[in-house]
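Please annotate this fold before class:
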Amino acid sequence: MGLGIAHRFLCCLVLWSLAGCAERTAYRHLEAAIEHEQHREAEAALKAFRAAVEALPEDPYLRRELGRAYLRRKMYGAGVAELEQVLRVEPSYVDAYRDLAMAFEAQEMPDAAVGWLERAVEEVPGYLPVFRNLVDLHLSHDRPDEAQRLLEKTALKRWPEAVWVHYRLGHLYQQLKSYEQAEAAFKKVLEINPRAVRAHAFLGNVLYEQERYDEAIEAYWEAIALDPQDHSSLNNLAWVYAVQGIRLEEGIRLSRRSIRLAPGPSPEYLDTLAELYFRRGEVARAIEIIRHAVSLQPENPQLKEHLQNQLKRFVAAGRGKV
């Protein structure tokens, strides 16, 4: 009996040793794969990723790394197959669901991408990041009703103090022109975090769209006080002054500051500056600035049309003065 126990123990020890050896081998291949990737040796890297999985085929992490390697090379069929195998081994591996969603998103198959994220939410219902991915996917594909349903019926109940929920709702309500609800959503963010710069800025936008200019000005100033580098709020505040025809000198200073702080040439910001000079009666200066804005050729068709209309308006006004 003692010999039987000893024999079984020896067998277990051998199996453990073999398993440990396989794991060490697999992860050495993984290290080699990562190094090849860093040196842009794509073929050698993929070979090493495959070798890692062959050494330890039941390791979901290694399979996911191989799947992601395929996706980086746009080998979507092979990548999806590996990631699906990951989920057979480990059904709650949330990142694999997210990888699959991104794979189908890259192939312009949004319904399939949504399906994988919905499965992830079902498998791990309390994991906030994947739920956020699902909401954002609906929003990016112009499915506001689905996003709204998820936010109102699920997110608000599960994560009532998560600021991203209220940010998304605020933007969604604003898009739907439900301004009172949008205002409430951004104010909720500020209840949770009074120093949330973007919440002050977005609240200013909602107030502006309701023509509550004094309140919008106050909200933009709050954002600027918290972040003096906030070029968007500087521009928006200057635009409110331009629209109202007030504090034009101050507006010009704010506008020029926003242009300096912007990461690159901004037709929108130049439009604000041009409007301020136009309101101040310096039509020639306004025409010069708006022509520069038009020359930047913004991709947004609505902005492009607006700038052309501004140029026509300024030119017409200039002719009237002659």
